[in-house]
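Quick one, C-alpha cells below:
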C-alpha cells in the first residue's frame, strides 16, 4: 500500500493536536509535584502563565526540530501552522470565564518573545562540568520559577530538572520524530 506523503501543514496539524493533550497533562504532573514536594500552589493567573510558558517552550523545541528536518522554508510553514493549531485548540477548550481572544494574544506574544530569547541558547543542557546558566532548559526553568514566586534556588534546580525530564515524554507523546521526517 502506498502512503500519501504528508504536507508540512498536515504535520503541524497532527503534532499540534497531540500537543493540546500532552502539555496540559504534563502541566498537571509538574504542578502536582511542585505542590506535593515544595508546597508551591499557583493561583489562576500563575497557572495560566505557567501553561502558556510550557506550550511556548515545547513549540520552540518543535520549531528547532522542524528547522533541522524541514529546512528554513519548511520550518516557517510548520511553525506558523503549529501556532495557529494550538491557538485555535486552546480557544475551543478554554473556560468561558477567560477571554479566549486575550489568552491567545498572550500565547502569541509570549511565543514571539520567547522565540527570540530561546534562539540565543544553543545548548539544551549543560555539558559535563559546565554551568547550567545559559542553557535552554535552565533558562526555561528560571521563567517557570519566577511564575511560582518561590525564592529558593533549589526549587529552580528542581524545576529545570522537571523540564528536562518532561521533554522526551512530550516529544514522544506528540510523535515529533515520526511526523517530522
Amino acid at each position: 500500500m502506498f502512503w500519501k506523503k504528508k504536507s508540512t501543514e498536515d504535520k503541524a496539524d497532527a503534532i499540534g493536536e497531540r500537543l493540546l493533550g500532552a502539555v496540559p497533562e504534563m502541566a498537571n504532573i509538574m504542578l502536582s509535584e511542585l505542590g506535593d514536594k515544595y508546597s508551591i500552589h499557583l493561583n489562576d493567573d500563575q497557572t495560566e502563565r505557567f501553561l502558556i510558558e510550557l506550550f511556548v517552550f515545547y513549540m520552540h523545541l518543535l520549531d528547532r526540530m522542524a528547522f533541522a528536518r524541514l529546512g528554513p522554508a519548511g520550518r516557517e510553514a510548520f511553525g506558523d501552522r503549529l501556532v495557529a493549531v494550538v491557538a485555535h485548540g486552546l480557544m475551543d477548550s478554554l473556560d468561558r470565564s477567560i477571554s479566549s481572544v486575550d489568552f491567545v494574544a498572550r500565547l502569541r506574544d509570549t511565543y514571539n518573545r520567547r522565540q527570540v530569547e530561546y534562539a540565543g541558547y544553543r545548548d539544551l543542557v549543560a555539558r559535563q562540568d559546565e554551568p547550567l546558566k545559559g542553557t535552554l532548559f535552565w533558562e526555561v526553568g528560571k521563567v517557570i520559577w519566577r511564575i511560582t514566586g518561590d525564592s529558593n534556588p533549589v526549587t529552580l534546580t528542581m524545576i529545570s530538572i522537571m523540564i528536562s525530564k518532561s521533554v522526551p515524554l512530550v516529544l514522544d507523546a506528540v510523535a515529533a520524530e515520526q511526523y517530522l521526517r
